[in-house]
Amino acid sequence: MQQEFAVEESRGNRLPGERFCPMEDELVLFYLKPMLSGEMVPGRNRVVFDCDLYGHQEPWEIWEAYKTRRPNDLRLNKDIYFFTQHKTMSSTDTRIRRTVGNGTWKGDDSGKPVKSLETGRVVGLKKRLTYKNQASEHNGCWILYEFYLDPSLRDKKQKVEDYVLCLLRKNGEPKAKIKKRRKQREEEDVLENNYACDDGENTNKEQPQAKRQRMGEQNGDSNTLFPRFNQATIMECLFHYRRKISSGRKCYNKWVLETIMEYRRKIFCGMIY
User: Fold this and answer.
1) What local confidence, expressed as pLDDT, does residue 162 receive?
2) Known Pfam families for this protein (predicted)?
3) Which of 55, 233, 250, 268 falls 20 to 30 Å from 240 in CA-CA distance?
4) For residue 76, what are the contacts with CB-CB under 8 A and spacing of at least 6?
């Protein structure tokens, strides 16, 4: 039994529920420090991958390329860890070039100290950056954390220069997907209300005819202000709207939304027959 467990461990098999979820000081001391010293890094290219995060690939392309490597980790956090090398603007300009794909990594702060949980000593620095590209729907949807080793812990015979350990985090979905999902929810709400009306469900004890009469007395002639809609007509409009969305064609959004809101109001007032 012990031999079988040892074999599974040597093959890199993980226990159910086991995830790579290190603390910040652990990232700096046990992964970044040996990387900079030229020593063996535990789990290199298994839990922390070598990748150019300042190259031609967009953040979501990098994410798609590596997300299958650690699927169990992504069930808890939307984070993938990388080693990447800084690049300067030019041979004479020592500023760090932070372009990525057609966008750029924009710094959100000047950095926060990373302290050891055991000793309280500062062991590194953490910087937060956000993906910026006004022309892309992914603008603001990706976060990058850079971890630096504190200079006091650097080896004088350091063999690797300009490397940082990075955490790439998925920060929500593109606005277009969010807007599309919101529209679908609105349609589903309207359809559910319609089905409830068809099934004869009425939470208000007041009968529809009496309610229409009462609303007419309060607001004048309700049929003049708000002509009664036939359910079949409304459902035909909604079906037409849904078909346009599924086909990707443009439609009269303002008119459709006004129709939907008017329809829901008339359901509430008992004005639809």
Assistant:
1) 83
2) NAM
3) 268
4) 19, 21
